[in-house]
Design a protein that fits this description.
This protein is mainly α. Helix content is about 65%, strand content about 0%. It is built from 3 helices and no strands.
């Protein structure tokens, strides 16, 4: 998605605060687009682990 390292950390913290789940930074970096990011985050929000 073209994020630099600071943006990735900020996004990770924001997701944790807003959705109550910890998303590994590597998951955020690996996402190619917002749709891909949503698919990676959804299982974590629903209580699953990756």
């Amino acid at each position: 998605m073209g994020l630099d390292s600071l943006m990735v950390v900020e996004l990770s913290v924001a997701v944790d605060r807003m959705l109550g789940c910890t998303v590994p930074v590597l998951e955020l970096v690996a996402a190619n687009c917002l749709d891909d990011l949503a698919r990676r985050i959804l299982p974590l929000v629903n209580g699953g682990t990756r």
